[in-house]
Amino acid sequence: MPDADGPEWLVEEGIGESRALLIDKGQVVAAKQFWLSKICARTILMAKVVSRKPQSGRALCVSAQGFEINADGLPREASEGGDVRLIITREPIAERGRLKRAQGRYFGDQPSDAIPPASVFTTGKSVRRFPSGLWEEVWDTASFGELAFPGGSILISTTPAMTLIDIDGEGFPRELALAAVPAIAQALRWFDLGGSIGIDFPTIPDKAGRKDVDAALAAALADWPHERTAMNGFGFVQLVARLEGPSLLHRFATSRVGACARMALRRAEMAEGTGRVLLLTVHPALKAKLKEHWLLELAERTGKEVRVEINPTLALEAAQAQIIAS
What we know:
The chain is α+β, with helices and mostly antiparallel strands and 326 residues long. 27% of the residues lie in helices and 35% in strands. The chain is built from 7 helices and 20 strands. The longest helix is centred in the C-terminal third of the chain and has 23 residues, at 248-270.
């Protein structure tokens, strides 16, 4: 369990994904998710230079596992066909209709003290299961893309250009904006948001009111590394933060079926009861997404025969798992 002296990252190794929660006093402070078929940020690896323009430090490289990487900072002697040592700065990100390659930086033979801190998936405390309900709360909230606060809610959506946060509610613009700030700070950490983020606050006509919201936002994000613009006359604020991979919201926007399939496997692994068969009932689209080696791993983890049935009336998010006799 988390240390009583402060927050602690817990890591749950799932089927097809790893999950991490930063927990403090029994509450979720932040969350991260990594899909195991990808290449993790901060990984150091060797890759072959496939294509490089003359007089440019940028090149297309390919790792031994077949991952394409847009690399920069390469020295002149790194020629096409040669191998280079890279550090991954951002994992691949799917967008509607395309896949943005992983990004990397030439790492050469830099000493160990130049290596950035490892991912929480490496440094966090490994647990078999998170405390009950915590991951479900984060996952369900990300699935809807909405987070409530007293008097309103924030609605969050992803676009290829940026993540947008809209404030919806009742009351005077200044008071509504101030009430939304804690929910915004929570969403940024819960959903692992990064890159360019736009916040559309209610329009506050007076400069003093806008400054009040700026100050509240600065205080709420004091320990969250980012750059930020002041609120303009239309209530818009832009944040820029380090982006190492897709946010939880991005997963749902570009691969909802994949996200729901992994959650279905988690529910199946956690099913309790007596019997020799684990019955997993899912929407037909989920069954097509469940890879054979995932189901074999599920059988190994549970010691049960795994049987998958479909039910078209189930929502993608509503997979059901139970232990039955046969």
